[in-house]
Amino acid sequence: MQIAVVTGASSGLGREFVRELCRKAGSPTCRESDKLEEIWVIARRKEALEALRREMPVPVRCLPLDLTKKESLKVLSDTLAAEKPSVRVLINAAGFGKIGTYKDIAMQDCDDMIDLNCRAAVDVTLLTLPYMERGSRILEIASTSAFQPLPGLAVYAATKAFLMRYSRALRWELFGTGIRVTAVCPYWISDTEFIPTAQQTKNGSAVRHFPLASHAKTVARLALFESRLGCAIATAGPVSFIHRIFAKWIPHCVMIAGWEAIRRL
To answer: Among the options 102, 131, 156, 187, which is catalytic?
Structure first.
């Protein structure tokens, strides 16, 4: 059985990835190796997953799991062991951020960001890899914030830098297996719950505006296209592409100063 596994699938970018995978799997030009018999969707909210399942043309298996809990990972591990699927695509889209300085964000929120954005993504990847084969793809959803330190998003940006670097190293470790790894680094996405959730701190206005924000559907489509091309980094939009180039050549102290000016506008 050929499947895809998508975490964070109950809303936002994760949900759009599921829709895009279904669209591609149903295309008459889809290659046999990319056809999916089932998509496994993972998130905490069971009702949202069930609603997604009902609208998808491809069979969807709902796994309402909290990936910050070890028992949830055990459920995923046991399900994979029982079914022994061929995982063609893994998309680690589960994650969240909080806006504010060290004074504004609770320690528990900082811990949870590290736990979900970093540890859970690594754990799900390690659990899934034994069921992947040549031609399989892994998309780790990082962020354009991975390219530089960002005051006001310090912990979130650091978790995404971790995930991007983990993706790049894992890509080399898998060299020769035919399994491709792509770190997806999008800019702000306007039509998801990310920004409203991120602003729920003592100082959610630490970043006041989100100009040129992209849309989840566009990001999902571009990210999957770039992963099919075998790209190590998928910027999935012009702003993040330019940011990546600038951060490569301009000293971080200068980039941080520029960010500090922009976020106060």
So the answer is: 156
pLDDT, greater one: 100 or 174: 174
Helices of type H across 174-251: 194-198, 216-228, 238-249
Answer whether residue 195 shows pLDDT above 90. Answer: no
- Reported as a single tens digit per residue, the pLDDT across 127-173 is 999 999 999 999 999 999 999 999 999 999 999 999 999 999 999 99
Angle at 118 (CA atoms; ends 114, 122), nearest 5 degrees:
150
DSSP string, 85-126: -EEEEEEE-------S-TTTS-HHHHHHHHIIIIIIHHHHHH
Which one is the CATH code of 2-263: 3.40.50.1970, 3.40.50.720, 3.40.50.300, 3.40.250.10? 3.40.50.720
Domain ranges of the chain: 2-263
Strand order, beta sheet including 137-141: 60-64, 38-43, 2-7, 86-92, 137-141, 180-184, 233-234
How large is the average pLDDT for residues 8-24? 90
The two three-digit tokens of residue 70, written as one number? 């070890």
Spatial distance between the Cα atoms of 98 and 263, rounded to a whole number of angstroms: 14
Give the C-alpha separation, 171 to 137, whole Å. Answer: 10
Active site residue 156: yes
pLDDT tens-digit series, residues 236-254: 889 999 999 999 999 999 9
